[in-house]
Design goal:
single chain; mainly beta; three-stranded antiparallel beta sheet
Length: 112
């Protein structure tokens, strides 16, 4: 495979579409190149360094929602388990009322 392509990378898992306050959420990422070839043999890289995966969050609701500082402080981590799958974890913060969390997965700062 060639270099990873954001347009062809697969993002899936329950945490990609829904999350509950204070409960760990999971998103899986399988990188693919510009030709759609999945990168299954090793940790996806750009040159000599691994791709840095992260999240960008936006909260919405009919009433109040966590502020930007609370969203920026959401715990995030990633683990590479092999066969091209990187699993990302995050835990939405508690809040006084129910809210919706828009989740974007980023690879080196580019939305997938």
């Amino acid at each position: 495979p060639a270099a990873p392509s954001a347009a062809n990378t697969l993002v899936y898992g329950a945490g990609a579409t829904a999350a509950a306050m204070t409960k760990a959420s999971v998103v899986n990422v399988v990188a693919a190149d510009a030709h759609g070839n999945k990168i299954l043999h090793d940790l996806p890289r750009v040159g000599d360094r691994p791709i840095a995966y992260s999240f960008r969050f936006a909260a919405t609701s009919g009433g109040s929602a966590p502020n930007a500082a609370a969203l920026a402080a959401i715990p995030q981590s990633a683990a590479y388990y092999g066969f091209g799958v990187t699993t990302l974890y995050y835990t939405p913060p508690t809040h006084a009322s129910q809210y919706y969390l828009n989740v974007k997965v980023l690879a080196d700062g580019v939305a997938l």
